[in-house]
Design goal:
3 copies of one chain form a homotrimer.
Chain A (H helix, E strand, L loop, with lengths): L1 E6 L5 E4 L1 H11 L4 E6 L5 E7 L3 H14 L13 H10 L2 E7 L2 E2 L5 E7 L5 E10 L4
Antiparallel strand pairs in A: 1-8, 2-7, 3-5, 3-8, 4-7, 5-6
Chain lengths: ~130, ~130, ~130
């Protein structure tokens, strides 16, 4: 399992970690299996979305902010209740198959660390799971 | 890893792919492990929900359309910003355990390809991951 | 694969199952891999969020109730259409890496069974997937 660090600079921000995930797969030497990317934080998540137009990430963040606005009468008193909710909606892990040592991402797909309570120093875990039949 | 094709006919549509996922598991010969169903597109996803009343799928699609309406002032200029957001909310993969070569789906569960920007020709990847202890 | 039982007491409720998931990992004896926690129901899910302040879970439930209210003109006639939608938003599985036989949960993370149509007797499946390289 590899642990990578991510530094975020805004409260809500999607950071492209595709190259880092591919690097972990390369270093593992594995040929067939699934990579699990896991975020061990409760106010951030991970998602897969378009890697071309950055407006897509802005739109995802914008919709989440509209649906779950900051400071809208939550019980949790730390001012980041919305961040926790967004984390549960987006999810804390993604599972991506690989074959021939290559991630099966679609042409337009990138892997994004989803910060909802930055700026912070964060960690992302990448576990390469080999298929036992391999 | 198997690649299956899905043809969608509407802009938003849930297509039952349960039988195809079970077929991939059968062909693998695996007995214990987890099947990962992965969608390599950024305006579609995959989800598990009720297989009996098709109204449930219509309700999921209806709520997503209400929460993330098409053409509601997004930055992304291709007219499908909402489709990208819905994909991140629903997710691009599901992981389903299997035991005795049988998927551990609940009685009422089916696996659905979730189209949010159809009609299109789509692909779905099915990776059967055997448990190394098997 | 282990099957655990969960009894819920309210219509919407998050129940901490972290200790049970850790127990399944311990009993497996596995050292490196990924645990998949899977909910075989269509009106419940599983999510990872803060384990300290219970207000966080109340806030997640509160936002989901605001976005997807019960009885808001759905097609599905059983009165739990909202529960099905919430299940698809939260998701039916989580994948958590482990290393040295220890779950890689963050300090503040717990694993929660997410009931959206209780009270009911529910099941949760825990599959420990060893890395074939182990």
């Amino acid at each position: 399992m590899e642990v990578m660090k991510v530094s975020t600079r805004r409260r809500s921000e999607f950071i492209d970690i595709t190259v880092e995930v591919e690097g972990a797969l390369d270093r593992s030497g594995a040929e067939e299996g699934v990579v699990v990317v896991y975020v061990p934080h409760t106010t951030a998540g991970v998602t897969i979305n378009e890697n071309a137009d950055p407006d897509v990430r802005a739109d995802v963040i914008g919709v989440l902010e509209r649906l779950v606005p900051q400071g809208a009468g939550y019980r949790h008193a730390e001012g980041n209740a919305d961040s926790h909710v967004k984390a549960s909606l987006v999810g804390s892990s993604v599972a991506i198959p690989f074959s021939g040592s290559k991630l099966a991402l679609g042409t337009w797909q990138g892997v994004y660390f989803a910060e909802f309570d930055g700026p912070r120093s964060r960690r992302v875990l990448v576990k390469v799971l080999r298929d036992a039949a391999g």
